Amino acid sequence: MFWMINKILKLAPLGVFAFICTTIITFGASALLPLLKLVLVVVFAMVFFVFAILGLVAWMCGINIMNIIRILKSELLLAFSTSSSEAVLPVMMKKMENFGSPKEITSFVIPIGYTFNLDGSALYQSIAALFVAQMYGMHLTLSEQIVLMLTLMITSKGMAAVPGTSIVVLLTTLGAMGLPAQGLALIIGVDRILDMVRTCVNVIGNALSTIVIAKWENVYDKAKGQEYLKSILKNTI
């Protein structure tokens, strides 16, 4: 069984490459333009979400979102390169403790967040589902889009923090919503790039959630957090 899975994983990139080559030969290089637009839209949406939505939440709690990014810059680079937030879990928990969040908050919120607080994955899946629908000329009403978004928000919970999981969730969700799941074959070609971006968003969202919960519970150590931030900035300079 594992031998077969190993062979499939080795041959899958060749299959995706062949599919994209067939698309280019049939429809021309312009067929890849929608994929470029998808990448740009997803990246823009992720950046907007981090600095506008998460930034607003952080500001309401008296925190600068840039400080969290500065503290986790090494972890974000590792998460970006591996497309897995699991790789940075222990170090991120330690850094959030140093930033002022108590251990009992950090050790509970971050592991739970790795299952139920996947902001980047949920955002990507919504955009990818709409992309597939538009690619096949299917017009979704506002109510259908809302139902699709809510469905993806629910199905994204419980995903493993490993590369490529979003595609599996999308595959099952699109079929249940009556959308052509075969459209994902084209997205797979750029999924690795988008996976790296959404993994970073997941890490930032989970890191921020620990500070927010600590603030709400009135157990956040502001002095410890400021001292740790000063040490980070000093080492950076």
From TrEMBL:
Main location: membrane
Biological process (GO), any one: dicarboxylic acid transport
A GO MF term: symporter activity
Signal peptide positions (record): none
Gene Ontology, cellular component aspect: plasma membrane
Highest taxon of the lineage: Bacteria
Pfam family, one: SDF
Keywords noted in UniProt: Cell membrane, Membrane, Symport, Transmembrane, Transmembrane helix, Transport
InterPro entries hit by this protein: Na-dicarboxylate_symporter, Na-dicarboxylate_symporter_CS, Na:dicarbo_symporter_sf
Compartment(s): Cell membrane
PANTHER family: PROTON/GLUTAMATE-ASPARTATE SYMPORTER, PROTON_GLUTAMATE-ASPARTATE SYMPORTER
The protein's name: Proton/glutamate symport protein Sodium/glutamate symport protein
